[in-house]
Amino acid sequence: MRYTGKELKCRARECMKGNYLVPVMAAVAVSLLAFSFTCIAMLLFSGDGTLALVLDQLASLIFSLILSVFTAGICYIYLKIGRKEPYSMNDIFYMFHHDPDRVIVVCFVLTLIDMLCSIPVYMVQGLISQADTPERLLKVFPVVFGAMCLSSVLALFVTLPFAFSYMLLVDHPEMGAGEALRGSVSMLKGNKRRLCRLYVSFFGMGVLVALSGYVAYVWVGAYMQATMVQLYMELNGEYEGASQPGQRDTEEERDRLPVRADDYNAEA
User: Fold this and answer.
1) Using the 8-state DSSP alphabet, how is residue 243 labeled?
2) DSSP 3-state helix, strand, coil percentages of the chain (rounded to 5)?
3) Distance in angstroms (rounded) separating the CA atoms of residues 41 and 256
4) Is 132 helix (H, G, I), strand (E, B) or coil?
5) Which of 70, 140, 147, 248 has the fewest CB atoms inside 10 Å of its own CB, making it the most exposed?
6) What confidence tens digit (pLDDT) does each residue in 37-86 have?
């Protein structure tokens, strides 16, 4: 069964009705934890020296690896919601009891890829430090902004095939980090454009999030994550039974899904 982008978003909204509280609270808790880690790193390794900078970056990497285990736990919550299974806030700790080193390795690999994609930004950082006046800052802004956009686009397209790595680790406790990365690439083979279009379909909401001072991100992020879970479940074969004898019922169910105007921006 292959759903369109707007149908995936409709299914996500149906699943999330009355289920926003726990995943939003989990996301806020992880965000506060990340903020606390950042403050600790700044206090421990303050200074302009090379050593302080290196230690600060190392501490940030370690903290991000720890947070990735919580992120995988949040994926577990969304998977349970998508499958209409019971869930609780305690599920955020799920991966700590199921070989968390697998998640840490995947996060480390993705972080290295992100660092490589950020090379354009590193190359223009010197321009920012030299811009000691507003006039000079305005002159270097287009270059810096272009480097940031280039890095973001590179990171998006390079990491896109690994989007389902955490979900695979959650679903398969016996799966190693390398298997999860390869499994995600295999699942998205021929579907990367679908996923990319799904990301783009949230662009309008992203603008609203920015206008709200990013306060609305926790809700939009939950909606987006729930939609990604629906795509994962489809590619994972969890809807295949619907294309057999019960296909007529499924088609009727699809016709009943509420479609909003903004969903027409998703993949047709």
Assistant:
1) G
2) 80, 0, 20
3) 51
4) coil
5) 248
6) 888 888 887 766 677 778 877 888 899 999 999 999 999 999 999 999 99
What DSSP string runs through 54-120?
Answer: HHHHHHHHHHHHHHHHHHHHHHHHHHHHHTT----GGGGGGGGGS-HHHHHHHHHHHHHHHHHHTHH
Q: Where are the domains of the chain?
A: 5-265
Q: Give the DSSP letter string of 191-211.
A: THHHHHHHHHTTHHHHHHHHH
C-alpha distances (whole Å) from 16 to each of 24, 63, 152, 233, 255 are 11, 30, 29, 15, 19
Helices (H), ranges, 160-176: 165-171
Q: What is the pLDDT of residues 158-198, one digit of tens each?
A: 999 999 999 999 999 999 999 999 999 999 998 998 999 89
C-alpha count within 13 angstroms, C-beta hemisphere, residue 114: 12
Kindly state the DSSP code that residue 268 receives in the 8-state scheme: -
